[in-house]
């Protein structure tokens, strides 16, 4: 590949959520207003039919009142549609800004141009905001987005809404999340989500935990029975758990009673919410960093003996952890890195071997010798040698 040439496909590959999120929000807003229109129109039609049937029997006053009621309802519908129209316009505008941001990339031809660096800086800011939003640093994220003028490129509202649902679940309350499921039912069905069933199951368990067994059974008949085709086994277990009680050690009932189920539900919600908007499960920042780290990782990064100061993967507490599960990079030619300075040794700065067999770069040894009257100290063993005893190493 030419130096500086941009890999557009690779760059765009990571950007799908950028367009998918406002598109999904737009779809949802349109669906809600459509549902509302259908609901009001159905009511009006019933009302009109009723009125025409009773044309002979009802008084002019009654008919006028009935018509006035309809007008009020239609006016309310109009106001509501005006609101959703404004919301829809916002999502369209956001999509436009995002498309322009991506289009900008197409006008850049070299990875070394200042324009590309500028574009990458904006992308980095976006990733940082996304990372902070996912970890609950909502205010800091909003501040950074405002500071950089990238509010239209990040999903502050989406994460703020999700945060409300997560907080409610954290307080052991399913109402918000059930509402969310209801608003997104068709898409959740498409991804075969079991979130709604698990929420119902959890509400049932909580009723049972309070000792309201009868209410729990009623609840199950009302809300859980619809899932009997797919979740019969769990429904049976839920019934049987009533006989065992919260302190049971017997599985699977112990697991059902366990309060940590709430955390599982929060994770389920997050993963469904991400799937719904095509958001990656991991923050984009983590994925991008991992892509870079995989290119650098070598087997010696994890041996204390061979850590290099200039290699991020060698930093055990930070990037090293992030790269833990990544494969090692495939290096066609091995390169030898100086332990002291972290630079790669080559013919201009050749590797030198000390009498004890350890290798350092010529430049590092010369710098040590200049400070210490021609003597060099081996960093690994502490032995001192005259620099004249170091021999050039030849790598086969
Ligand atoms: Zn390393």
Main beta sheet: strand number and arrangement?
A: 3 strands, antiparallel
Shape: elongated
Please give the share of residues in helix: 55-70%
Q: How many individual β-strands? A: 7
Distance between the termini: 29 Å
* Uncertain spans: none
Give the integer mean of the pLDDT values. Answer: 88
**Number of helices, counting only DSSP H or I runs of 4 residues or more:** 16
| Structural class designation | mainly alpha
Classify the beta-strand content into a percent band. under 5%
Q: Provide the number of structural domains.
A: 5
Query: Are any ligands bound, and if so which?
Result: zinc ion
Using brief descriptors, characterize the structure shown.
single chain; 396 residues; mainly alpha; 5 domains; three-stranded antiparallel sheet; two-stranded antiparallel ribbon; 16 helices; 62% helix; elongated; binds zinc ion
